[in-house]
Amino acid sequence: MLAKVNSGCVMGIDACLIDVEVDVANGLPSFSVVGLPDTSIRESRDRIRSAIRNSGYAFPSGKITVNLSPANIKKEGVGFDLPIATGILGATGLISPDKLDGLLLGGELSLNGRLKPFRGALAIAISLGKSRRTFILPEKNAREAADIGDIPVYGASSLRKVIEHINGINPLDPPDTEQKSPGRNKPHDIPDFKDVKGQEHVKRGLEVAASGGHNVLLLGPPGSGKSMLAQRLPGILPDLSTEAALETTTIYSVAGRLKSDGLIRERPVRSPHHTISYAAMTGGGSRSLPGEISLAHNGVLFLDEFPEFRRDVLETLRQPLESGEITIDRARRSLRYPCRFILIAAMNPCPCGYFTDPHKRCQCTSHQIQRYLSKISGPLLDRIDIHLEVPRLNYEQLSTRRTGEHSETIKKRVNESRNTQEKRFRDKPGHLAYNAYMVSRELENFCALSNEAEELLKTAILELGISARAYDKILKISRTIADMDTSETIESHHISEAVGYRCLDRNLWV
Length: 510
What we know:
Blueprint: E1 2-11, E2 14-25, E3 30-34, H1 39-42, H2 44-54, E4 63-69, H3 81-91, H4 97-100, E5 103-105, E6 108-109, E7 115-116, H5 121-128, E8 134-138, H6 139-146, E9 153-156, H7 159-166, H8 200-212, E10 216-219, H9 226-230, H10 242-255, E11 269-270, H11 278-282, E12 283-284, E13 289-290, H12 292-295, E14 300-303, H13 311-315, H14 318-323, E15 325-329, E16 334-338, E17 342-347, H15 366-373, H16 378-382, E18 386-389, H17 395-399, H18 407-425, H19 440-446, H20 451-464, H21 468-484, H22 492-500
Parallel strand pairs: 3-4, 5-8, 8-9, 10-17, 10-18, 11-14, 14-17
Antiparallel strand pairs: 1-2, 2-4, 6-7, 12-13, 15-16
């Protein structure tokens, strides 16, 4: 007897519909799975056999053939356990074939028949939601899938609960999306800018970065507060919209990193160690999982000790910083992961760290300094919008008891600037959202300069010898500063401030 069940296969952050066809026929006992299954699916045969028996059902003794269609797509993951087991029970007559129509199943089975969560449930729900199938999956996956609200979702604790629901014996209840699980919307423990003493120009630069989505390089001696300042940037970023929260949660679902059962409402902050590998940064590996740059999507990627990262790891940031996505090519397919983040890179000006420090003598030779700085290529440096020098604080600045501006106050100004940009780009293809992602056409349309600003920019280009990409960066930063001043036209003081944020274009370290 033949039975067919639908499931989904994750491909990047998308998913495709998979037909799970099960045939139970007379013959010598065997259990085979065809249709390009990976090792975890082939190994599921023993799990499924034990789960069916321990759930109180008889496992068929004939020849069992499972076909995963379409056969040209590589099937990965443990989410096929539940649909295969359900198909086997359907093929033995325990479930009427018509009751399997319109169902979408996914989940890993324990040997005792309990359902365990699997990665990618939200991606499957979003991609296949328009099919209007009823999604049955493990309880711990149910709320993340139910949050999209487009398809009926039911969470089950065991294989037996699923079979009873399908047969109408003991219907499952849909998950309560209003009930928030512990930590579901709990924000990161982000420190406040009010605790930062001095460094007013750096705080201003980080506010500009947060307002326009610009990447930042912090340059200064050890102990000047680079890491302290970078850790506070997420606290002034706008809250995630529902659409952005779905994107972020989908990436973490595909990566198997969801720590709660609802949408991720806080912006992700990733801070990988400088020894990270190429694959861990970009994504990929044997299972083609998202890397650190994709896990930072809609959030912040903080790279401390920037020049200490491997050269190939740093260079792989060039395309994502421009396009906001990364493509991972494999022999049979290409996967696309979004990675639109704010990069915060921190570094010392030389190997010993004290080249620009007026109070401590630098021990490095000019050759050592050049070699250290050359670890960051010109094309990569061009893609970092804002360069901020972070000097050491003096005694008066350190001993002051006056607190700085609260992060919440800065965040309100950032929100106002972001709202201006949202309105500007609302009707544009791809919905740019931030000034940092404007291209040439948008720069021409939205970066109107006053006569004084145009003359100042021309002078800066001639004196600094900046590249075409750096010129575009200055325009984008100027547009953000003008938005913060609620000015339609970019004035000369906006250009002046923007040029001041390009300190590495001035060849200070030669």
